[in-house]
Amino acid sequence: MQKKLNEFSILVSTVNGSGSATANNALMKAIFKMGIPISARNIFPSNIQGLPTWYSLRVSEKRHLARVDEFDILINLDKVVLADDLKKVKKGGLVLCDQPLAPELVEQFHGMQLPIQEVLEKAESPANLNVYLMNMVYVGVLAALIKIDISLIEETINQHFSHVEKAVKPNMDVVKIAYGMVTNEMTEACPFELEKRNLNEGYIVTDGNQAAALGALFGGLQFSAWYPITPATELAECLNEYNPQIRNDPETGKATCVIVQAEDELAAIGMTIGAGWAGLRSMTSTSGPGLCLMAEYIGLAYQSEVPVVIWDVQRVGPSTGMPTRTSQGDLTFSYFLSHGDTDYVILFPGNVQECFEFGWRALDIAEHIQSPVIVLSDLDLGMNNWMTPKFQYPDLPIQRGKILWEEDIEQILKKNNGKWGRYTDLDGDGITYRTLPGNTNPRAAYFARGTGHDEFANYTEEPDVWKNEHDRIKKKFKKALEIDPHPILERNYHGKIGFISYGSSHYGTEEASDLLNAEGKAVDYLRIRSIPFQTEVNEFLQAHERVYVVEANRDGQMAQILMLNFPELAGKIHKIAYLDGLSLTAQSIITCFDDQEKK
Amino acid sequence: MNLANMVERTNSAGLTRNDYSGESSTLCKGCGHNSISNMIISACYELNLRPEKVVKFSGIGCSSKSPTYFLKNSFGFNGLHGRMPSMATGALFADTTLKGLGISGDGDTANIGLGQFKHLVRRNMPMVYIVENNGVYGLTKGQFSATADYGLSLKRQGQNVYLPVDIALEALAANATFVARSFAGDPKQVKEIIKAALSHEGTAVIDIISPCVTFNNKENALHSYSWGKGHEDPLHEVEFVPSRDEITVEDFNHGEMREVALHDGSTIMLKKVDKEYDPTNRKEALKILADAIKNRWLITGLIYVDPDAANMLDMYDLPETPLNRLPVEKIRPSKETLEELNQKFI
Ligand SMILES: Cc1ncc(C[n+]2csc(CCOP(=O)(O)OP(=O)(O)O)c2C)c(N)n1
Ligand code: SF4
Ligand SMILES: [Mg+2]
Fold this sequence. Notes:
By secondary structure, chain A is an alpha/beta fold. In chain A, 40% of the residues lie in helices and 21% in strands. Chain B has one domain: Rossmann fold (3-Layer(aba) Sandwich). In chain B, a hairpin with a 5-residue loop joins strand 5 and strand 6. The complex binds thiamine diphosphate (TPP), iron/sulfur cluster and magnesium ion.
């Protein structure tokens, strides 16, 4: 039999709150440690206990890590969804569940009943732990069938329970007994197999929220206020966890970063902007509903020129929408956030490594241009474990932008014959020099406000002053281009057609580009990483006859913004926009692409 | 003319009263808020505060405009309607040697900002929080605020059919550690209370009845000058004694006194008016406020103080150097630290 080697997908369905995360994580990590590229996704309900939850794994030597919606292997412990789950399994797939397969299905699949009761009895584990331990049965069985190195499972479980060592043995007992119950013949008959590779050298496994939190802490974050909301909560919880570990001053032991759980997002953004104004590198993290509440305050930060980072881990909106499902639906809202004319730097991390990188870089950009920076991550990146290159230490020293302390003011006054105010554009780049509370120079103090003001921050409604001030503010966003991340040409097949994508839609897009190329359709792919658009975006649009913008929202929000920015090229821009709460698959992108190309 | 009289007087910080002034006010003539601004200037002058050690905050409203009318050499931030407390909370972490001074209105605090107000108080962030309470929205031209008197009628608004929010009571319910009430028409008391509040190491709430002469100054309105003058019932006369002033026996020999020591060594001397009142007793404070509502009294003075309560900054072990002056080396962990973390994630 020709086995499928290192290129297949697994769906695990369990009931949420049953502790299957430990089992699933053990599978993912062990395969990762075997050196085979892998991606994992949790599809879970907005609920704490008792509803179906899915975990999907995709192993891919070719490094195709996008979601798939057809699976090679199904592990099902939730009878309620078994019939539906079976529809997602390819013919000839492997099905492991805790009941015998119906006779009409035996033909279609390689079925096996998981020996759950038997294993648990043999393991003599305490009955109260059985609900959790039963998940370890499928770990052991699957490991034996597809040849996962069991010592790597043990390593992972040791890591997982490093704080509760006594939990390791009962879990491993179950894994080993289950593993032992799979016969050689059964393994031989299994159509899927893993073989060690060395493709994950230099990689780690973590999620985008954790990466963002660590990135910010390495970026010199000094203040963060937040309010719990799925799928952003873990970001702030990671700040809480790591802040005392890595940000207490090694000499004095004192805290150099403050984390506050606010009473709501109105307060979270208020505190964060207050801190940013007073000279602390500050960030808040939230999701769509929270961003809605923050809108007015972010407009104030734009208007009074306060550096601040808003990290939005997107979920499906509008309204409560689907809180535990992913989307890229907050782009248009972010782009136009607040009433009046505004501009924002918006960053799009496309993988976990970039969540770390933009964690520190966003703080630099915000202070550089003295304006809010919005980072659009999403649930797919934020809450799933990903293999990712090790975090890279920032390659730039911390950029604090134009800040004047006591002495600096004297010098700047000397240089400019005494003429300087908070909003005086001395350098002609729109970015002015700011002072921070506590500065004792008699010229330092100013009164910040959201109302119209002159260069000395004094209230005014003078028409010319308003216009000039806001023309100046606009200039800052040209300056931002100097330090904003550039787009990446992810695939260059020298085609006449192009894909543009961003954020977590990257995975589906890159795979679609590869698959189309294999069919002889060359589609290049540019991944946008920031707004305002760098010149490469314009060049890419110019260089292609048709460009499809791939994104996980209904209306094609990025496509619309591109059309606004490049009206003369708008005719070339087409949408591949799709939102159902799941990250895009290569197949759905290709279908949509082919449909439009036929026309 | 004596030449000496022409030299402006300076306080022990070497500053004149003018050094504490601001732009000239654009509020209506006779607005209670102006008189409060003046008392803030006097209090800071008399306390020898350095203006650069004070940071001003405000929300939106006529009241919230007033921070530009005093302490021109202090930093300040005029924020959003009802959401000054959060902004102040974040900013005050940057340099904990600075004194926060927040100015709000009754609409700003008791309507749109009630939530943020109560959370500020609950966390006990050290700052003075003054509500210039006129029972109306001044800046939007005379609508009822949540502190408007029950039954009050105003031009174009009809009659107020809802019971008012009592700011001092709300503060106490949120476990405030300093609650005072005063009346803009009693500048001496306003000033002494502001001085005491500036020495309190927690959130110091001062509810100051501050008549809006344009939209709410009817004879019988609780927030009017005439009503305030007629119904003010001081709990005591307040005298604030900064820590460095020596208290002489002679000064305080007369009348009956009660002394409340604040954390920084200063004291508030309360001279008995006609009743024995203990401002450190929360139960008493709640009762006196309830009685005042029942009897339509304007109780003024220091209603409650707990000088020793832990404040928000105590919850964080912050370095001596203000956070906003930490050099960049202090806020980025080492390469080795990152390498260790990377190892954890393999
Ligand atoms: C979000 C928002 N809603 C409404 C307003 C309009 N507004 C400005 S001031 C004000 C009321 C101010 O009343 P108060 O705080 O009592 O201040 P006063 O003018 O009476 O001193 C309102 C509703 C605003 N600025 N912002
Ligand atoms: S409208 Fe009322 S509150 Fe506003 S400035 Fe005039 S008197 Fe003061
Ligand atoms: Mg008012």
